[in-house]
Amino acid sequence: MNLRVIAPLTVLGIIVVVATMWMTGNSTPETTIVSDVSIESNNVIDENLKSTPTIMETDGQKHIIPLDKIKGGGPPKDGIPSIDFPKFAKISDSQFVSDSAIVIGLEINGDARAYPLFILVWHEIVNDDVGGVPVAVTYCPLCYTNQVFERIIKGNEVEFGTSGKLYQSNLLMYDRWTDSYWSQGLGMAVTGELSGIKLKTIPFDVISWGDWKKLHPDTLVLTTDTGHLRSYATDPYGDYYTDPGIIFPVDNMDDRLHPKEVILGYHANGIYKAYAQNDVEIHNIINDAVGNTSVMLVSLFPHNTRGYDRTLNGEVLEFEYVDEKIIDTKTKSVWNYDGHAISGSLEGSQLSRLYLEPGFWFSWVAFYPNTEVWY
Q1: Tens of pLDDT along 83-98?
Q2: Structural domain of residue 188, as residue ranges?
């Protein structure tokens, strides 16, 4: 039975059915350490991570996570089919998407596209090309983790598919070049030939379709013409998103927040921090620092937050939201949602956008148990 693509089940019912699926045997293959390697993003060391992984080898298989932590999610490899030839509609032909539907919004080089979660919940990965950039738009319903990656590895354009496996209850993708497994939450190859390589990330929005259309009136939207027959009008996870129960095992739990509180994760200089989406919405703007990086989080739409580095020309700016305007307190320049100064003495200046990682609290803290939480 394909447990992750069936009609809605209660969380308790799912737990009972799958409880034995992730149990491992009593014997463990002998594992040897091959080498310590630098985490790479297109062959560039990622300085945001404070430690480098150790490549291990078990029965000839390279990996950087314990193999016994990889669990079966129910479906086989490609049992949840990626969308490899996505088809899109213009706003005028988008009646199949309600304004309240949550989408992953992506804009690259003037090419704006939206990927509804009610489609992604059945596919989890879209291999696409946006603004001339090959991307993998990914969504793990178990963790509510949304991630967008550039799908260029060592100069090669690759496709990703679903492996049918999980690590820390999170989607493990595989690449169709080397068959290495990639953790969506880490954005990194965790088994196989490419172990230790990190994908380049691309900023995106999690936002309602109605609000995304306001920001990008020329956007396209992914259609249900996927080549697969799925019940796109229903969600196979039912009330899982609000139930505190977690189906698959994770190594660390933390009660500072509700397990399924939606947070924005960010890391810099070896420091990890989580911001509750609801807190950012309440404040509209949060000025903070993560390590040596001064950050500004801004939310002008429900479900959505953008992050920017608030250091400009060597000076750290402080921002506030006044009279429905984003203003820096020093020069009183007005900034738009794209981090661009549209009036004042800083007009024409541009803030660098930060890559935020939205998802459930339990997932973020499972990967990063020493994370800080903004209060």
Answers
A1: 999 999 999 999 999 9
A2: 11-205
